Amino acid sequence: MNTKHQNQNQKTAFITGAAGGIGYELACIFAAHNYNLVLVDRNEPKLVEIAVKFQKEFGIFVKTIVKDLSTSTAPEEIFTELQLADINVDVLVNNAGFGIYGLFHETDLAAELEMLQVNLVCLTHLTKLFVKHMVKQGEGKILNVASAAAFQPGPLMAVYFATKAYILSFSEAIANELEGTGVTVTVLCPGSTASAFHERTGMADSKLLKGKKMMDARTVAEVGFRALMKGQTIVIPGLLNAILAKSVRFVPRNLVTKIVRNMQEDK
Questions:
Q1: Which CATH number does the domain 2-264 belong to among 3.40.50.10420, 3.30.70.270, 3.40.50.720, 3.40.50.2300?
Q2: Which pLDDT tens digit goes with each residue over 23-57?
Q3: Can you give the C-alpha Rg of the chain in angstroms?
Q4: Which of 40, 116, 134, 178 is geometrically suited to a Cys-Cys bond with 16, CB 3.0 to 4.6 A?
C-alpha cells in the first residue's frame, strides 16, 4: 500500500517491526520530522491504519510492506520491491525482533530458529543490501535496535540475549569500518520497555519486571532518534540502565550470569 506520491526531495526512513512498540514510535518521530516512510511488519491491518493516519496528520508518503521476516527470502524481496518502485532509503532502522523465555533444553527449536532469522540474519542481510548504496551516495544512517541484554549472558532467555550481543558487536564493528564514508551506525540498547514484548515472551511475572515501572516506548524511541541524528554509536536510554550495562565489565562473568538468572526467574 502507498499513500500519496513520493516527494523525491524528502528523505526516506525504512523501519521493520513498525506496527507497534518502539518501531511504531520511531515511525511517528520520523513522520513528524517530515520523512517519507517504508514500514515493514506482518500485521497488515495495523500497517494500513498507520499509513492512513500518517497521511492525514503529516502529509507524507508512506509505503507499507507486509512481510514475515522469519523467511530467508524476505530481505531480498523487500529490497527488490523498493528498487522497482525507485525508492531510495536514507535511514535504515532494523527494529524487528522477538524473544523466547524458558530453559534452553525445554524451549521450541523451530521458534528459536525463527528468532535467529529475524533478530540476526534479516538484520544483517538488510544492512548489507542498503549500506552499499549509502556508501556510494556518501551519506546514510543505520539504527539497529539491540537491548541492555546485549551486555551480559541471559539464563532463561539464552538465545535472545545472545542475539542482542551480536547486534551490539556487529553494529560497533561496522560503525568503525564506515568512518569517513558519510554513513553512521547507531545501536540502541534499551532496558525493559513497556510494550507487548514481555507478555509474548511469557516473562511478565519475572522478578525483573513484576511490579516494576518500565520506560515507555516513546521515550526510548526519542532517545534513539536523537542519538541517530548525532551519529552516536551506542545509546542506552536511562541512567540506571547505562550504569548497570557498563558495570558488568567489573564483575566476574559467572557472578553476572547468576544475578541475571535470579532476576529472570518468576519465583
A1: 3.40.50.720
A2: 999 999 999 999 999 999 999 999 999 999 999 99
A3: 18
A4: 40
Q: Residues 175-192: pLDDT tens digits?
A: 999 999 999 999 999 998
Catalytic residues: 160
Domain ranges for the chain: 2-264
